[in-house]
Structures are given as C-alpha cells and as structure tokens.
Specification:
The complex is a heterodimer of chains A (110) and B (495).
Chain A (H helix, E strand, L loop, with lengths): L7 H29 L6 H23 L2 H17 L26
Chain B lengths: L1 H52 L12 H33 L6 H23 L15 H21 L8 H26 L4 H36 L6 H14 L16 H12 L1 H15 L3 H6 L1 H23 L2 H7 L4 H30 L6 H34 L5 H37 L36
Classes of the chains: A mainly alpha (110), B mainly alpha (495).
C-alpha cells in the first residue's frame, strides 16, 4: 500500500474536499442570490400598483361617506314592513322580468 | 521471477475478494431493492399506459388517476430503480478501480434504507395527490433535500477512495464515474433551489425543471452506464479499449453538450428564444458522443461474437451501447425544428425517455449486475433460461415501447397540425399505438419478474457454488476458470 496517498489524514482531507466540491454550487447559489436578485418590475406588477392605489382611494371615500347608523335604521324599517306583510296567493314577491332583445347600438357620433 | 509474479497475482486476487466482501451488503441491498422498485414501476407504467387509451380503466380508485399514476411510475423508475442501480454500480466499480476496500459499508447500508423510505413517502404523496406535478420532480419539496443528503452520504466515500487510490492510471470508467458523481449534486441542488426554494418566475422554474429532466439522464444515468460499459467490454473480452483518444473525445463531447440540453421542451414559451434552440441543438449533437462511444465499445468487442453471445454481462452491455447509438439517431431526428413542431405535444418524447432510461441505462445496469453479483455473493446465477428470457423480453419490450410511442407520437402530431380533422380522430389514431405501449410494458413486466426472482434467490445465497460462470450457450468442457468445484478458494464470503 502506498502510505503517502492513503492515510487517515489524507482520507479526512479528501472527505471534506469532496463535501465542499459537491455542495459548492448550491452554496454559491445561496450566497450570490441576494446580490444578483435585483427587483424586476414587470408591466403587470406596475399596473397592479396603480390598481391597488385606486382601490384604496375608492374604499376610503366609501368608508368616509357611509352613514352606518342611517343604513341600520333603513334596514330595520324594511325588515319590520316585510315581517308585517302577508303573502298573497298566486303572486310572487319579485316579478320575473320579461326577456328583452338587446338594445340596438347607438350610432357613433361624428 | 515466476514465483514473484505468482505471489503478486495471488495478492491481487485476495485484494479483489476483500473489496467484494467489504461491499457485499450495500451493493446487494441496492440491486435487490432497485429490482423490486423496477417491478412496481412497470406495474404503474402498465396502468398509466392503459389509462391513455382506456380512461375508465381502474377509475374506481382515485389514487390511480392518470396524472398521479404517471408521476408515480416515472418516479419509481428513476429514484427507486435507476438511482439505486447506479449507486450499486458506482460504489463497486470505484472501489475495484481505485483498489480500495470500502470502510463505510454500514453507513452506506443504513442511508440506503433511508433513501428507500423517502422514495416510498414521496410515492405515497404523489398517489394521494400531494405531489409537486413537475415532471421528474413529482415528489413534494421536502423530500428533495433529504434525498440529496442521502446521495452525499452514499457516494462521498467513492470520491474519497478515488482521492486516496494508489498512484497510476485513471481508467476511462473512472472519468465517467467521477463526472457522474459530481454532476448529480450540481443538477439536483440547482433544480431544487430554483424550482422549490427561490421565488423566481414560474416559467423559468418550468424551464429549469425541463433542463433537470434531460440532465438527469445525460449527466448521471448515462455516465454511470458508460462507466460500466467501458469496464465490462475490455474485462470480459480480455482486450484493451479500442481507442483511448476516441474515448477522450466521446467523454468531453458529452460533458460539453449534456448541460445545454433540456429547454427545447419549452419551444414557443415566453423564455429567451436561444434557450430552446440551444437545447434542441445539443440534443441533435448528442449523436456525436453516441457514435464515438458506440464505435469504441463495439470495436473493442469486435471479433468476439461468441463471447458476446455467451456472456450475460456483455450481451446486455453491448445491447445497451447499440441502443445508445439508436438514442443518438432518434434524438437527432426528433429535435430538428420541423420534427419538434410535429411532436412537441405528443407521445414521442416519452418514447425517447424510455429508450434512454430503460434501453440504454437499464440494459447496461443489468449487464453490470450480472457481472457483479456472482463476485460479491460468491455464487453463480442459477438459470441461464431466466437470463435469456430477461434479455429477449426486455429487448422486445423496450423496442416495442419506443417504436409505438415514436410512431404514435408522429401520427398524433400530424393529427394536431391538421385543422381539417376533428380532435377525436387524432386521439383515436394515437390510442391504437397506446395499446401497443401497454402490451410492451406487459412484456417488460414478465422480463423483470424473472430478473427480480433470480436476484432475490442470489441475495438469499441460493446461487450455484461453482467455478463456472453461468453462460447463455452450451456447457464448456474446459473453462478458463479451472475445473468445476468450490469457488471459495480465497475464503468465505461471510468472513
């Protein structure tokens, strides 16, 4: 046996070198990922930001103008009148609308 | 002088026997458990193929849905059979060629059990609908780091053996083994990080998964198969490799082209257009290493037709090499741009995958198993008929699958392109070939039942105690191994 090539120290070193070698690419990927991963704003994401801003504006405006107390009162009144009313035989509460042909498109203005 | 030579030979035989003894348990474990997974993969393949032309088949079992059973079939074939057969070949070949006993057989055996456990859990996840749905990476994300760690714990000792080997020649087989050993963690870690961990764009994740699919065959299974072929052809015929320069050229051609292949699967997808074209070009050019290896191995065994016919190892290996050339030709034809247009969404790709995994890798692995198992169990194979049936049914089965899938795929592609025909006509045309594929899987199932049974008997040490290897043709009055008798002239394998 060639003891210059095979001894415990050589095997120990070979083990760690081999481990480093087979994991090198994964380690490199993990280390370099935060450096190389620049934020990319795609057109879809940029449009989504505008949409989100508009949605937030609308939600805020609605919340500001909504009078919850008046709404609750109106619901209570409607509920009370519905409970008090009696169904009439042969009549439906909400009549089914008759089928309508789609409206003709308006001529384009010059 | 003669006495010195005789002592050296005797020492050499003793060293080989001690290497075989040191690796007996892990290598036999990988081969036998791999064979059992192969039988299961073929059963799943049969069901998956039947579902392509008869969707109602076994539809009462939700876990056997077409999508699930197809993923389970390929995963069992690749990680149950392929990876374990490769592990057995790699650790035995590297120990023999580095001339070093294995001092970590216990660790390898224990981690081998873990590998099987994780593959089993992965398959259960796929069949219960918890797979990832990514081709060749169907196991859920948490399985992959565990499998990669198991791979490291199994194969790192082979790298250590190579590093501390006695100074001298590095064999062609060792180039391929070393390359495969280092390439697998590269492709597996990359694919795992970019598909399951990093929050990259989903289209690029699909492209990387497609690259992994090709790289797994070209950069891991193929190098392992070629390492085995470059070992067995000179060893069994007793001749050196035909051309060292051709071997060098073939190796570097594969190393250069292999990593580029894969992304041709995403032709037309919104990724940089050079990527699919580079992938297709690499797959077309795979014909170059295929021809180099084919010429080199077949020229090595040329003139020894009788040995090829008699030796199970060489017969399987030579067939695997011939099918590698066929793989190169088919890859050339299927990856030209007009053919890609026709076959991108058809069965043809499946035919090429099976030709690679079963026709090239598995046939070479069977050749290696028929060579290695008698040496580590110190018993000879029981039945030449079992080996013959295994060989002919395997060859017939794989050829049928490839022909039916490729021809059916082209027919399917023509149907998709022909807008004047209803879609159902195309599906009906393709289903005829689907029946052919199902029948061919049935042939492979029979072939591997013989193989699995034979291997399990060898594992139970029920093989023949004889000096004569089991050959596929008539009994020889005179054997190069000496007279009939006990083969344990170096000591008991159980010692």
């Amino acid at each position: 046996m060639d003891h210059t090539r095979d001894n415990p120290l050589k095997r120990f070193t070979a083990f760690w070198v081999a481990l480093l070698l087979v994991t090198a690419f994964g380690i490199a990927c993990i280390i370099l990922r935060p450096i190389t991963h620049a934020r990319v704003d795609s057109a879809m994401e940029a449009a989504a930001e505008d949409r989100r801003a508009l949605r937030a504006e609308v939600d805020n405006a609605q919340d500001k103008n909504l009078n919850q107390d008046a709404l609750d009162e109106a619901f209570q009144a409607s509920a009370a009148s519905l409970i008090a009313s009696k169904p009439t035989p042969g009549k439906v509460a909400v009549p089914k609308p008759a089928a309508k042909a789609p409206a003709e498109p308006e001529p384009a203005s010059e | 002088m003669a006495e010195t030579t005789s002592t050296a030979e005797s020492n050499d035989v003793a060293l080989r026997a001690s290497i075989d003894r040191s690796l007996r348990h892990p290598v036999m474990f990988f081969f036998t458990s791999g064979a059992v997974w192969l039988a299961l993969a073929i059963v799943l393949g049969l069901v998956a193929s039947a579902k392509k032309h008869s969707p109602e088949f076994l539809s009462c079992f939700s876990f056997l849905d077409a999508g699930r059973v197809d993923g389970a079939h390929m995963s069992a074939l690749i990680y149950g059979w392929g990876a374990q057969a490769a592990f057995g070949i790699i650790i035995w070949l590297m120990a023999r060629l580095s001339r070093k006993e294995c001092t970590n057989a216990g660790t390898i055996l224990a981690v081998g059990h873990l590998w099987n456990l994780f593959v089993f859990i992965g398959l259960v996840c796929i069949l219960t609908g918890n797979g990832s749905g990514i081709a060749y990476m169907e196991f859920p994300g948490f399985i992959w780091p565990l499998l990669i760690l198991c791979y490291l714990a199994i194969t790192i000792w082979s790298l250590v053996q190579f590093q501390v080997r006695d100074a001298g020649h590095v064999y062609v087989s060792q180039w391929y083994l070393l390359a495969g050993l280092l390439w697998f963690p590269w492709i597996a870690v990359t694919a795992f990080l970019f598909v399951f961990v990093f929050d990259g764009h989903p289209v690029m994740a699909s492209a990387i998964a497609a690259w992994f699919k090709s790289a797994l065959f070209l950069l891991f299974f193929l190098p392992t198969a070629l390492a085995s072929a470059y070992y067995l052809a000179p060893k069994v015929t007793g001749r050196p490799v035909y051309s060292y320069n051709l071997a060098l050229f073939g190796f570097w051609a594969l190393a250069f082209l292999g990593p580029w292949a894969g992304m041709q699967k995403l032709f037309g997808a919104p990724i940089p257009q050079f990527l699919p074209y580079a992938g297709a070009a690499a797959m077309v050019l795979i014909l170059i290493p295929a021809i180099s290896v084919g010429i080199n191995i077949l020229q090595t065994v040329y003139g020894h037709g009788e040995i090829v016919a008699e030796s199970p190892s060489l017969r399987f290996t030579s067939s695997g090499v011939v099918l590698f050339v066929a793989y190169g030709v088919l890859s050339f034809v299927l990856h030209t741009v007009p053919a890609m247009k026709m076959t991108q969404f058809s069965y043809s790709g499946y035919g090429l995958d099976i030709l690679g995994l079963y026709g090239v890798f598995s046939l070479c692995a069977f050749g290696a198993i028929y060579f290695i198992v008698p040496r580590i169990t110190r018993r000879e194979w029981l039945s030449r008929r079992f080996i013959s049936w295994h060989f002919f049914l395997s060859l017939y089965g794989v050829a049928s699958i490839v022909i039916c899938a490729v021809v059916g795929g082209v027919t399917q592609g023509q149907g998709i392109e022909d807008v004047a025909q209803p879609f159902a006509t195309m599906a009906e045309r393709a289903s005829q070939y689907g029946w052919g594929v199902t029948l061919a899987w049935a042939f492979l199932l029979f072939a591997n039942l013989f193989f699995c049974l034979h291997l399990l008997l060898m594992w139970a040490r029920l093989g023949r105690r004889s000096s004569h290897p089991t050959l596929l043709k008539g009994h020889h009055a005179e054997s190069p191994h000496g007279p009939e008798g006990e083969i344990d002239n170096i000591g008991s394998a159980s010692a």
